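Technical annex, item 7. During the second reporting period the consortium partners agreed on a shared format for inverse folding records so that results from different sites could be compared directly. Each record opens with the tokenized structure and is followed by the designed sequence. A conforming record, contributed by the partner at site C, is shown below for reference.
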């Protein structure tokens, strides 16, 4: 039985101007599909196969949750016991959270700490221990256990907790406890390994027009995909840094369907698998809903929960520069689906079009034209993404004002304990902001206020204001306020 026609997928790729896609489907323990569509490299005309590596981005969270479950089974920690019972030096900004925060709180995103992608994304920090020490200085954006605050930094810390409890690196634990037992020989968690592999999908961005962002590029850009660099997500591997293939991910999905058993051996208890898949918080991911997907979803541990046309499922998506992934598990139907794209935003609509069409076909449900319905949603999705492109600096400025000092007076290194060092450098007649090896423009607004455009926080782009302040004793520039996150007030970086 054809799971989905090649013509359908190729037509979708052409419509959305996507370079390529990998699709895997497993049903009742049998691989029904493992195929590539389009190109892993457009210029070289090289094809995607079931063994081509993609960055799975936030789908990594399901692996981290499973790894933690295995450690719970070994008695190294408990789901609901405070982390401080096992690691007394655990500290969060909120004393209440410090005393009570459990690994379950972390894995279902209810610690109160959201955002904070700046310290880990594409970072050149050698160890997650640095983030462990910085955690205590990261201000929460919501009260502890009050609501879901999706957090990559917290998942990165969860992976480090596994390292501390075992004395092994997160990468070693993945390999020994998951990859090797499942036969996932083409999976890893470092950029170096992926780039050295020789069969990885080239990452792309949709169009070069910098005035457009997100899903706007669906209908406003006349340009096709162009190559971008591979972003280093090694530090945040427990949150978003695993690389894998269609064939390997099918083994992973079957492991979920088999309740943690592989080749007759149970690797994780039934109780832990239930804990991982159980909805712990309500969460509505999308701004639109179809009648077939009622607003009753939530978040488990490394998985979203939903119902599609009466069929229970858990799933996750992942998006990182150049890659998009969706994994779906329908446990009562014994069905698993994975979809890869080698292009950055927007990828959700085309992936859902493919996934829902596959589910309908495999389960024998009445046909729905998901291609047309998703295409009609592109403008809504574009507006949503435009809402995510936040200009915290604003367009207004006081005209005919100038800086109070010569440009050189603003240069130097500035420190904030939750983020480390930001260096301000001068290039000609302008200032640049240098953080984690990434250099960004600083555009003068008025007085001693500059703005830094397109600072990436997960899938959101910010334009952030930097306000330089003076020392009351001698009038020199000695610090700046950096409004880096929407949810919390400005961060103060002190001159070193």
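Designed sequence (site C submission):
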């Amino acid at each position: 039985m054809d799971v989905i026609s090649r013509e359908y997928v190729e037509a979708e790729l052409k419509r959305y101007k996507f370079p390529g896609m990998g699709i895997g489907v497993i049903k009742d323990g049998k691989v029904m599909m493992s195929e590539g569509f389009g190109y892993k490299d457009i210029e070289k005309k090289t094809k995607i196969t079931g063994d081509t590596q993609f960055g799975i981005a936030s789908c990594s969270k399901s692996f981290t949750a499973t790894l933690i479950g295995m450690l719970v089974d070994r008695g190294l920690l408990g789901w609901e016991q405070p982390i401080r019972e096992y690691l007394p030096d655990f500290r969060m900004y909120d004393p209440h959270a410090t005393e009570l925060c459990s690994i379950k709180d972390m894995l279902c995103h209810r610690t109160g700490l959201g955002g904070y992608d700046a310290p880990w994304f594409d970072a050149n920090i050698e160890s997650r221990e640095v983030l462990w020490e910085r955690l205590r200085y990261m201000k929460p954006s919501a009260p502890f256990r009050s609501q879901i605050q999706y957090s990559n930094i917290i998942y990165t810390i969860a992976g480090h907790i596994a390292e501390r409890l075992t004395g092994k690196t997160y990468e070693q634990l993945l390999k020994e406890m998951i990859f090797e037992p499942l036969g996932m020989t083409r999976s890893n968690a470092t950029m170096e390994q992926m780039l050295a592999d020789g069969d990885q999908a080239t990452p792309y961005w949709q169009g070069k027009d910098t005035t457009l962002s997100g899903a706007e590029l669906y209908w406003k850009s006349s340009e096709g995909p162009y190559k971008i660099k591979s972003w280093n997500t090694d530090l945040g591997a427990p949150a978003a840094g695993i690389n894998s293939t269609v064939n390997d991910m099918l083994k992973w999905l079957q492991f979920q369907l088999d309740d943690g058993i592989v080749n007759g051996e149970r690797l994780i208890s039934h109780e832990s698998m239930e804990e991982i898949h159980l909805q712990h918080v309500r969460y509505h991911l999308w701004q639109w809903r179809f009648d077939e997907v009622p607003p009753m979803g939530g978040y488990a541990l490394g998985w979203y929960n939903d119902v599609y046309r009466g069929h229970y499922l858990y799933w996750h998506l992942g998006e990182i520069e150049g890659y998009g992934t969706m994994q779906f598990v329908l446990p009562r139907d014994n069905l698993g689906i994975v979809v890869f794209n080698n292009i950055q935003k927007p990828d959700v609509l085309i992936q859902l079009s493919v996934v829902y069409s596959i589910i309908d076909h495999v389960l024998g449900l009445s046909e729905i034209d998901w291609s047309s319905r998703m295409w009609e949603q592109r403008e809504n999705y574009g507006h949503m993404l435009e809402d995510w492109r936040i200009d915290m600096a604003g367009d207004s400025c006081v005209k005919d004002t100038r800086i109070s000092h010569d440009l050189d007076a603003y240069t130097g290194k500035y420190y904030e304990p939750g983020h480390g060092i930001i260096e301000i450098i001068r290039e000609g007649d302008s200032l640049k902001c240098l953080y984690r090896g990434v250099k960004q423009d600083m555009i003068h607004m008025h007085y001693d206020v500059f703005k830094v455009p397109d600072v990436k926080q997960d899938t959101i782009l910010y334009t952030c204001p930097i306000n330089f302040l003076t020392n009351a004793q001698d009038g020199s520039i000695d610090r700046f306020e950096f409004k880096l996150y929407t949810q919390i007030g400005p961060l103060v970086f002190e001159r070193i």
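Residues 77 and 86 are 7 Å apart (CA to CA). The chain has 15 helices and 24 strands. All partners now use this format for quarterly exchanges.
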